[in-house]
Amino acid sequence: MQRDIDPRSLIGRRALDASGCKIGTVGEVYLDDATGEPEWAAVRTGLFRREALVPLEPSELVDDVLHVPFARSLVRGTPVLGVGRHLSPVQELQLYIHYGLDVPASAEGGPSSPSSSPGPDRDFGRIAGSES
Q: Where is the composition biased (Low complexity) (predicted)?
């Protein structure tokens, strides 16, 4: 995704899946605490406003719409994490595995492998615009 975008500008944008079907609307953006870069978007889906987290890399913002390169069914099937203001290393690892993405070494504090255990339990994904 473009790195020069204010992550708060994503809030309220439509999110489409790989085939162009609407997934929902971006409700929040989570930043990586270590880098400050936007990493995950919470997309409100369905009537009950369930939030599914989608990775912002390799997603793209095109014409004010977030294009997520995954099927809507995969997005809607994300683990229910009940996150809040931060993602724990374990929660983020679950999301990387769910989407079949390589786990960055910085997320685990070790090698880039979904089968390895997470690093120290520290919060590293905060919501954009939060003070702490």
A: 109-119
Going by C-beta distance under 8 Å and a sequence separation of 6 or more, which residues neighbour residue 99? 55, 70, 74
Give the tens place of pLDDT for each residue, 30-47. Answer: 988 788 889 999 999 877
Q: Is 120 left (phi over 0), alpha (psi -120 to 50) or beta?
A: beta
In terms of pTM, does the model score above 0.90? no
The pLDDT tens digits of the residues spanning 104-113 come to 776 555 444 4
Type of residue found at 19: S
To 5 degrees, how large is the angle CA 59–CA 62–CA 67? Answer: 35
Residue 39 contacts residue 57 (beta carbons within 8 Å)? yes
